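User: My collaborator sent over this chain with a note saying "see what the structure looks like." That's all I know about it. Can you take a look?
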Amino acid sequence: MQKLKDAILKKVRLYYKQAFAEKKWRPGQTYIPYAGRVFDEREMVNLVEAGLDFWLTAGRFAQEFEREFAAYLGRERAYLCNSGSSANLLAVAALTSSQLGRRRLHPGDEVITTACGFPTTLNPVLQYGLVPVFVDVKPGTCNIDPALLSKAVGAKTRAIFVPHTLGNPCALDAILTVTRKHKLWFIEDNCDALGARFDGKLTGSFGHLATGSFYPPHHITMGEGGAVVTDDPLLGRIVASFRDWGRDCWCAPGQDNSCGKRFSRTFGSLPPGYDHKYVYSHVGYNLKLTDMQAAVGCAQLKKLESFVSRRRKNFDRLYAALSQYRDCFVLPQHEPQAEPSWFGFTLMVKKDAPFSRTDIVTYLERNKIATRMLFGGNLLRQPAYRGIKHRVAGTLKTTDRVMNDLFWIGVYPGLTEEMLDYVIRTFAAFFKSHGR
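Assistant: Without extra context I'll predict from the sequence alone. Here is the result:
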């Protein structure tokens, strides 16, 4: 049987080399995406091997990934789920658990966040009846402005939940100072920043809980997938419970009676000895992922540092070339202690520039260079969030500037030197057409 399996996997390697042979890129004809999956035969071999196991749900590859992902971040535990958005949902849900006693979040409690970002950082806050407190961002970093944090804390504030925008670490020193002073929970949305560091320590290792995403544009991919990490065993059990239907049992799939007390305890008003596998301590979900996805992630995780290095190299190349246009753009910036793991290269068009964002974005797209806005812009201006209960600490002037004037282009590892040269030439041609 092993010989047959080896033969199949050998064919998979051959298939990859033929089916995914590098295609010639043609300037101005072949589209340059803002991001994309970067993989080789190792991911395909893992994927097929998991398929041959036919375990389907989370299994040995998921356990391997959770163990290695937690170790990479220096966290005690990692819990895989089906998306980064689900990871955010699980992190917020965990803080509402009655098992946290007086520290649990209740409807009406406030959570400090930003309106400048992706909606599924905000959505779980609303879905659990919590009240978002929106704080403006800094131009250049697009992260929550640390100078505004202290003033945002009110009598009902119980948590801070913010993203490291586009791989650029937040001012974690300021955030931790505020969370400790006011005894707040802190959740890091690390979905766009895997591999970034602050004061030499990886982002995703600072919060009580942190989340990650493995969607194809992200730093590593499983196709779909996400994770929650924590050092707190109680929070970990709660996350796992919400992920796994809300059940109280912590047995891994395919296991029974890990605690040795499966039929000997009493829960709620259930009859004594009711099967612990069917006891539910939370109103939960089924947010698990498949072992085939995890198998791809195991191969990707081994390449993470090389991916991060390439992202930084691509970013530096663009920065060196595009900084000559700083009179027209607000260029990317980061905190002094930060080492970003760049997800994209942001450019905010200045008010006195001789062109608009629409002008340059249209030009780039016409020349086959992908652009993106910073997700939802100011989420409060999106149709979905009209009339939500919220509080704004100060104003959202910079958030509105991001919404109106900022775009970003890719730095992902799949970009070649030839592609970057073309991007730089295209910017030069655009500025030449505007008298530069």
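A starting point for your reply to your collaborator: The longest strand covers residues 157-163.
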